[in-house]
């Protein structure tokens, strides 16, 4: 067992931001704090994004603190551009991320410390920054007959790019940014596409400034404050009505259908009896927070989420969640990393330092 002051779980935008601010306050990696990441290489969830998601299609990638991302080629895959950027960032600030490391559980330890059980052993820590994001928990809705479908079902988390859907009949489920991007790409090569969403898509016209951004974040923040599972910031901002979206609407690609009633071996059926045959169902239905490893601490509220004030878990001041709820955007993750470290430093200064 190793003793440290702070364990950071996750080395995406939020985790690297937190690690940077820990270092700026005088804490040293591998002595005072440790960063654990389950991914095989730097890049956070970006390294798993589909090749056709080029850097130019990314919605607002905000630079990490202390190092700008400059000169990026918009035509390159975002997984490569951001992966290289995160690699350079970890090296410049000597963050010494441990990977690949799986975190199984976080439990109560002795003398007010937390025990972080991992694939490389157990850490005893005085504070925890959880920055695990959502990519590892794709949400798959359940519908009658789903298990009988003889075609292929996959989620955004496994989306390979449009080429694999050439000549096929594809149902795309989901009205978010990923769903519309998948649909517009696939429609160029597929035999037929059908777009299905639970709600009518909301399109946003005009600029999206600081005031609009604050309002959207406040809506997500309110759910977290009430202990409800967080929604993504994108879910409350609507879809930007850009030239690509306008063109797809004019060509009938973004012709939205309500949710089907059930799935059959050959496709889907609606309540009014309408049927659509399909070779593939692509579920662009979002993700949930990857926080199951925190379950032993009993942080969840009756509503299903973890109630958070700022970044601090209300039920345990030693635990901070960054990149969770309102801080899930890249700029929000940066701010959350700094805020979490500010509170943790106060916690460390208030309590006696455990001997190593």
Characterization of this structure:
The chain is of the alpha/beta class and 356 residues long. Helix content is 24%, strand content 21%. It has seven helices and 18 strands. Strands 1, 2, 3, 4, 5, 16, 17 and 18 form an eight-stranded mixed β-sheet that branches. β3 (103-108) and β4 (114-118) form a beta hairpin. α1 (13-24) packs across α7 (330-350). The termini are close together.
Question: Gist?
Answer:
With 356 residues, this protein is of the alpha/beta class. It is 24% helix and 21% strand.
- One letter per element, helices H and strands E, the order comes to EHEHEEEEEHEEHHEHEEEEEEEEH
| Number of E strands | 18
Unreliable runs, pLDDT <50, ≥5 residues? none
Radius of gyration: 22 Å
Number of helices: 7
Based on helices, strands and strand pairing, what is the structural class? alpha/beta
**Content of β-strand:** 15-25%
Distance between the termini: 11 Å
Oligomeric composition of the shown chains: single chain
> Major β-sheet, in short?
8 strands, mixed
Q: Judging from the principal axes of the Cα atoms, what is the shape? A: globular
Mean pLDDT: 90
The level of helicity is: 10-25%
